[in-house]
UniProtKB/TrEMBL annotation:
It is found in: Cell inner membrane. It comes from Arcticibacter svalbardensis MN12-7. Residues 28-424 form the Major facilitator superfamily (MFS) profile domain. NCBIfam families: fucP. The chain crosses the membrane at residues 27-47, 67-88, 95-112, 118-137, 158-181, 196-215, 251-273, 285-303, 315-334, 340-359, 371-389, 401-420. This is L-fucose transporter. The keyword Signal does not apply. The keyword Transmembrane helix applies. Keywords: Cell membrane, Membrane, Transmembrane, Transmembrane helix. GO terms for molecular function: fucose:proton symporter activity. It is a multi-pass membrane protein. PANTHER family: L-FUCOSE-PROTON SYMPORTER. Coiled coil: none annotated.
Length: 424
């Protein structure tokens, strides 16, 4: 059966106007639902950073142990990446979204028995299932939103949807800090707030899934079709090559692995840094985490504008170098100068994920969906790196742990400076 059997595909788009539209009216309802998915997984992932600190408090965990929050979520991305891609190929975008939302809701509901037993292992299972849902949504949503209209404006739609992901990254720590950190009592082991918060989240996600099940998805646009003016989108320039023979794709997988590794480690211990190095209360540090995510949103808009005058790979390499400098300053523990450098990391991080993703799938033609799954699996770096940073933080202090992401940014710099190039 052809890919996306449940979602009708128009193999040849209709004649196009000189200036293609952002999307078509018939796709508007679907576009709203799919764009909301970007925000939802942004909320869930960044709320995990608040859970990391909250579990240190109520379950008496070390920083190394609490890093298993990120291990469970991002580990699920590695496990679910290929199955989600295969499911999408077999059953279509809409059913892929419904699968992702269902797993998301089930994982959230499992927080209730996990809280009742006060078992960090049980929380790990719930987070893993929730992470499988997030992985499925992320694997499906990118090509889904790209297919909702003219392919010459697909990048605009993806960047628009990614802006809502950044909004979700702001809402996640804001919600988590208010419900989980602002009411912390020293020595308390009460998990009621965790249970109630995720019960509400699970209910909201379940309602969204039910509503989306009634949405009729119009016939979509084939992302590899030749459009009316003769231009082709993402045509494989080396059709004789297998996927892993494309050097730029292999480097993109590596760059994404280290990119998410750096991101997850930096985010996971942001509250710890504010609390231990700056003397903030946990709630105040959580409030700064909201600002931290807002800076990423600003960086995404500014970065998108800069790409009009600076080639994306060049900008990617420049931002990687900037973050190397920021990490060195953060690791010195100089008070406000170091904390401002820590905030700036998210500005320079902002364009990295979507830029690496788009460069990695460039000119892969029929391999694009498979390549998307593998690049998404690179997110497993976010499962491993917080464990290493947590171990270093437990032994030599939280500030010095921020030397570690420098290795990640060196790999990203190499990809942006040289290895992004498509070879025929």
């Amino acid at each position: 059966m052809d890919s996306l059997m449940k979602d009708s595909i128009n193999p040849v788009p209709q004649p196009l106007a000189a200036k293609p539209s952002f999307t078509d009216k018939k796709f508007l309802t679907t576009m709203i639902f799919v764009t909301s998915l970007f925000m939802l997984w942004g909320v869930a992932i960044t709320m995990g950073d608040v859970l990391n600190k909250h579990f240190q408090h109520v379950l008496s965990l070390s920083r190394t142990q609490s890093a298993f929050v990120q291990f469970a979520i991002f580990g699920a991305y590695f496990v679910m990446g290929i199955p989600a891609g295969l499911f999408m190929k077999r059953f279509g975008y809409k059913n892929g979204v419904l699968l992702g939302l269902s797993l998301f809701a089930i994982g959230a509901f499992l927080f209730v028995p996990a809280a009742n037993t006060a078992s960090f292992g049980f929380f790990g299972v719930a987070l893993f299932i929730l992470g499988c849902g997030l992985s499925t949504l992320e694997t499906v949503a990118h090509p889904f939103v790209a297919s909702l209209g003219d392919q010459r404006t697909s990048d605009q739609r993806v960047n628009f949807a990614q802006s809502f992901n950044a909004l979700g990254a702001i809402l996640g720590p804001a919600i988590g800090s208010y419900f989980l950190l602002s009411h912390n009592v020293a020595g308390s082991t009460d998990l009621t707030s965790v249970k109630m918060l995720y019960l509400v989240i699970g209910s909201v996600i379940a309602l969204i899934a039910i509503a989306f099940s009634f949405v009729k998805v119009p016939p979509l646009t084939d992302p590899h079709a030749v459009v009316a003016n003769g231009d082709a989108v993402n045509v494989d320039l080396a059709p004789g090559k297998k996927l892993f023979e494309h050097v730029h794709f292999r480097w993109a997988v590596a760059a994404q692995f280290f990119n998410v590794a750096a991101q997850s480690g930096t985010w996971a211990f942001f509250i710890n840094y504010g609390h231990e190095q700056m003397g903030f209360s946990e709630a105040t540090a959580g409030t700064y985490l909201v600002l931290f995510m807002a800076i990423m949103l600003v960086g995404r808009f500014i970065g998108t504008f800069l790409m009009r005058i600076i080639a994306p790979p060049t900008l990617l390499a420049g931002f990687a170098l900037a973050n190397i400098v920021m990490c060195i300053i953060v690791a010195q523990g100089w008070g406000w100068p170091s904390f401002i450098a820590l905030l700036a990391i998210n500005f320079f991080f902002s364009i990295m994920f979507p830029t690496i993703f788009s460069l990695g799938i460039k000119n892969l033609g029929k391999h694009t969906q498979q390549a998307s799954s593998f690049i998404s699996m690179g997110v497993v770096g976010g499962a491993l790196f917080p464990l290493i940073m947590g171990k270093v933080a437990d032994n030599v202090g939280i500030a010095h742990a921020y030397y570690l992401p420098i290795v990640c940014y060196l790999v990203i710099f190499a990809f942006g400076a040289k290895f992004y190039k498509v070879k025929h």
